[in-house]
Amino acid sequence: MIVSRRTKEKLIIAALVALTGAAVAPLFWIIGSIVWNGISVMSLEFLTSLPAPFGSSGGGIGNAILGTLIINLFASGLGIPLGILTGIYLAEYAHDSRMGSTVRTIVESLSGVPSLVIGLFAFTLIVLSFRHYTGVAATLALGIMMIPLVAKATEESMRVVSDDLREAGMALGIPKYNITTRIVLSMAKGGVISGSLLAFARISGETAPLLFTALFSFYWPTGIDQPMATLQVLIYNYAISGFADWVAKAWGASLLLVLLVITINVAVRYLGRKKYEGA
Amino acid sequence: MEEPDYLKEINNGISEMYNSIVEIYAMVLSALKEPTAGKTKEICDKTKLVMEQEEAIIDRCVEALIRHQPFAGDLRAVTSAMRISYDLARISRYLSNIVQVIDDVQSGVACAPDVKGLLESGWEMVQESVKSYLSRDPVRAASVIDEDAKIDSGYRKVLSRYRDYAGGGACVLLNGLIARIVERMADHACYISAETVYMVTGSRIGVRAPKCPPDLSSQ
Amino acid sequence: MATKLVTERLSAWFGKKQVLKDISIAFEERQVTALVGPSGCGKSTFIRCLNRMHELNPGARVEGKAFLDGIDIYGMDPMDVRRKIGMVFQKPNPFPNMSISDNVVAGIKLSGEKSKADLDAIVERTLKSVGLYDEVKDDLRRSGASLSGGQQQRLCIARALAMEPEVILMDEPTSALDPASTSRIEDLIRKLKSEITVIIITHNVGQAARISDKTAFLYLGELIEYNDTKEFFESPKSPITERYITGRFG
Q1: Which terminus of chain C is more exposed, N or C, with fewer CB under 10 A?
Q2: pLDDT-derived band at A278, boundaries 50, 70, 90
Q3: Any domain includes C4
Q4: C241: part of which helix (H) or strand (E)?
Q5: How many domains would you assign to chain C?
Q6: Are A171 and C96 an interchain contact pair (Cβ–Cβ within 8 Å)?
Q7: Regions of chain C with pLDDT less than 70
Q8: Which is nearest to A209 in space by CA: A106, A124, A108?
């Protein structure tokens, strides 16, 4: 069969659309299920109260929401600064040195380490030493996971800044640390913020390290050194529990998580677009 | 060094101007042999042509400055050509003045054997100066300047010989005026040579300054 | 005329490749000196040795001496050198994330030392001296990058001048600009030389002839000729200079 060029073109386009649809369909299906199943559980009580005793309905996941926020914030407090500093080092101080490429390799490998293993590391280092489950270990694990993401985003955004500007700074006799922070980093801040937000979104989804660091709790968090409930672990526990009420709550928690992650991604896109419009 | 086209054209202009002057010189020689009337008109037309050629060269030089903004050797070549065109124009005027003098004095060439020799020497200088310019030869040009002294002394000899001449005013006028004209013509040949030296080497020989006698009041 | 900046047998390398060979030259105070020569023959490298920016390149090496008012440039703190010897680049490079006024005083504000200077006065004074003030005075808080090419370059010159340098180095400052902007900057340079020493690299021989008092010709890393501009352009001594400025090569 002799197929004309135009027909071929149309066939290819049709195939591409179909395949793209196939790739995107699961996403819609997942989000659809989550929204469908989770929306029915949403209520003020759900968001603000502690879990009710076994078997009874009502109660909520307030402690898990708070726990996730606390752990994420502390992890960011660890991961973002360290990530930015690493990124600055890689971008400005270690271009062609052996030390620099070693550090870069290590950072890149770190992003490939399974989160479970990082959790194990935190478990061994902190939980075992202090002999109880603690949010600090979770913070450490998640913070470590953020470092490569933030470092990469920082390094890349800073690299993109034209050398002309560094030269201009040098020619004015501005010390290098000021050139790095107040000129280059300042120009790269869009990328750094996006990278940090995306890292935050990423750790919001990590469950494995939390399983044996922060563990779980049915109570409000009393201190970062104590075990804490988190949305992720809650979803895990409730979903396999077999209690219908808990399963429903798991959908609700999933909906919250998905909303958080999507909001962050949309915000990052919006920030990025604003930059191109000539901010 | 390869010369750009605009310089070649300016050079050609100088060459053509020189050829016109060669023709004028031939007319001068024949006027000396046979001072017939009417030569003045012929030579006057030719001189007009030379003036037009001078204007054309100046024009081309200005255009070269505008268009090409030359530097170094090219710049010197342009400014030299402008000055030389003026010197050549003067030389053609001097030659036509000689014919005018012959016509005005209405005297035969029998009066003027000395001055004929002087004229030939002066003309020789003009030829050498233009040829050394066209061939960009500063050494040859410098030797022309050395010849000027001979013309000067020749001129003075003519003056002293004819100051007390008994053979008639016409001869006195003829010889005196022609000798003077030749002396000026030789000076312009020197100026042309000095421009050649400047054009090639960049240094100026100050021949245009008048040769002032020593200041007697200071003695 | 006193000499402001002197080099003695200054040589420079990029790794193994020698790009400057024994350059000895004395720049006169409060004059404009033009550096001309074909591309890639060391002119930029040379001026970057003067403000100690060449050594920032990996593998770069400098030998020989350079003196500013008799003081060894390579014995001074490099940042001090760069504050006294300012530089303007070929491609205008104002800081895009800073306003016009912040750009002008960037060198002062970010110098790492507390300055008591009246920054607003400095902004106004330097913008006026480069002829930019009237064009931008209604909104000095606009980004430095929102200006046209010629304005950006004048802003960069103002930024360099705000440091009150004694010498200003210019690396082909107008080659990326249109003729009108070029002309304004040439006028500015003529004005500047009454206060500061200017060393300008230009590949445009006509520009050197227009604005400089002295001209130096660098070829293949060597100083071939250095003279008063009129003499340089009327009767250069070296045949290589002659061939270059009459456009026979380069």
Answers
A1: N
A2: very low
A3: yes
A4: helix C239-245
A5: 1
A6: no
A7: 250
A8: A124
Q: What percent of chain A has pLDDT over 90?
A: 57
Residue B37 has pLDDT above 70, yes or no: no
Q: Identify residue A239 by its one-letter amino acid code.
A: A
Q: What CATH code is carried by the domain that includes residue C202? A: 3.40.50.300
The answer, for A242 touching chain C at a CB cutoff of 8 Å, is no
**DSSP of A170-225:** HHTT--HHHIIIIIIIHHHHHHHHHHHHHHHHHHHT--HHHHTTT---SS----TT
CB C199 within 8 A of CB C50: yes
Q: How far apart are CA B130 and CA B20, in angstroms?
A: 13
Flag whether C231 is in a domain: yes
Quick check: pTM over 0.90? no
Read off the pLDDT of each residue in A155-170 and give the average, rounded to a whole number.
Answer: 94
When pLDDT is averaged across residues A4-8 and rounded to a whole number, the result is: 89
Give just the sign of the alpha carbon dihedral B34, B35, B36, B40. positive
How many Å lie between the alpha carbon of A97 and the closest alpha carbon of chain C? 10
Which domain does C24 fall in, by range?
1-90+164-244
pLDDT in tens, C83-94: 999 999 999 999
Q: Is the Cβ of A277 closer than 8 Å to some Cβ of chain C?
A: no
Euclidean distance between CA atoms B136 and A170, whole angstroms? 53
In this structure, are residues B196 and B133 in contact, taking their beta carbons and an 8 Å threshold?
Answer: yes
Flag whether residue C159 sits within 8 Å of chain A, measured between CB atoms: yes
